[in-house]
């Protein structure tokens, strides 16, 4: 550990910095809630930073002592920046590697870890996309890079049984790309998992209309859904019979 003292005049902006660091630790955007203006304006704009200790420090700057602890030492070349810390060019260059790492983790059966990688790659591209005019050629190009990553992310979420997230993401894809077979198929599986029978059947029918070669796969999913429905009906009959016989 090392201890670094700091004088009050040098930490007048520390509350804003600390808020950003806390956002990062919580997995949020470090600039969440901030406007595009100078730091002094930010301080006057926000009555509260959301943390009582930071609000007090902002009102009454105090001398600070920082404890810095080394958690680990990484070999040269192994460090990978978090997406929020990258420049636009670094984000664009990092996406293929992050995508590759996600695929490798998925092949190894490390599904939550793979989902985290896909999420990081999506975050890089989404950050760049926010700077483009919606519908512009650059915006569309970035969106077309985001879509396969989002579908991979949805596949992970299917396996993690987080079905409603899959429904939301696949629907957002289909709102833009009505012929995306993979999005219909994954959404159909998610609908089936949460007993949205009619919606699942409609999505699987759309898959067949767009790609008839997938009939064996779709038929398997529909047979599985029908079998689960029969089991559920049998369980419900037993349960209700017990209720009414009391």
What do you see in this structure?
- This is AH receptor-interacting protein.
- InterPro entries: AIP/AIPL1/TTC9 (IPR039663), PPIase_AIP (IPR056277), PPIase_dom_sf (IPR046357), TPR-like_helical_dom_sf (IPR011990), TPR_rpt (IPR019734).
- By secondary structure, the chain is mainly alpha-helical.
- The protein has a domain of 67 residues.
- The protein contains 10 helices and 2 strands; from the N terminus they run βαααβααααααα.
- Strands 1-2 form a two-stranded antiparallel ribbon.
- α1 packs antiparallel against α3 and α8 packs antiparallel against α9.
- The termini are far apart.
- The model has no long low-confidence stretch (mean pLDDT 85).
How many E-type strands? 2
Q: Which runs of at least 5 residues are low in confidence (pLDDT < 50)?
A: none
The helix count comes to 10
Assign the structural class, choosing from mainly alpha, mainly beta, alpha/beta, alpha+beta, or little secondary structure.
Answer: mainly alpha
Write the layout of secondary structure elements.
Layout: E1 2-6, H1 14-25, H2 39-45, H3 52-59, E2 64-68, H4 88-107, H5 111-129, H6 137-159, H7 163-176, H8 181-193, H9 197-210, H10 215-244
Antiparallel strand pairs: 1-2
Helix pairs in contact: 1-3, 4-5, 5-6, 6-7, 6-8, 7-8, 8-9, 9-10
Subcellular location: Cytoplasm
Function: May play a positive role in AHR-mediated (aromatic hydrocarbon receptor) signaling, possibly by influencing its receptivity for ligand and/or its nuclear targeting.
TPR repeats: 181-214
């Amino acid at each position: 550990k090392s201890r670094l003292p700091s004088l009050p005049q040098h930490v007048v902006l520390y509350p804003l910095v600390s808020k950003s660091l806390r956002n990062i630790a919580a997995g949020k955007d470090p600039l969440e809630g901030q406007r595009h203006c100078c730091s002094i304006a930010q301080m006057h704009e926000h009555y509260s930073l959301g943390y009582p200790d930071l609000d007090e420090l902002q009102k009454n700057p105090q001398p600070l002592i920082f404890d810095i602890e080394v958690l680990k030492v990484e070999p040269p070349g192994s460090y990978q920046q978090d997406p929020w810390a990258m420049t636009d060019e670094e984000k664009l260059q990092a996406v293929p590697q992050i995508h590759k790492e996600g695929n490798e983790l998925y092949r190894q059966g490390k599904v939550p870890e793979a989902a985290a990688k896909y999420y990081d790659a999506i975050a890089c591209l989404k950050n760049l996309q926010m700077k483009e005019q919606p519908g512009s050629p650059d915006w569309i190009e970035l969106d077309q890079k985001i879509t396969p990553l989002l579908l991979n992310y949805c596949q992970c979420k299917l396996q993690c049984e987080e079905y409603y997230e899959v429904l939301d993401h696949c629907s957002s894809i289909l709102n833009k790309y009505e012929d995306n077979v993979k999005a219909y198929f994954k959404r159909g599986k998610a609908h089936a998992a949460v007993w949205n029978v009619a919606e699942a059947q409609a999505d699987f029918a759309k898959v067949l209309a767009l790609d008839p070669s997938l009939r064996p796969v779709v038929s398997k999913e529909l047979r599985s859904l029908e079998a689960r429905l029969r089991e559920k009906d049998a369980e419900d009959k037993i349960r209700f019979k017990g209720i009414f016989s009391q």
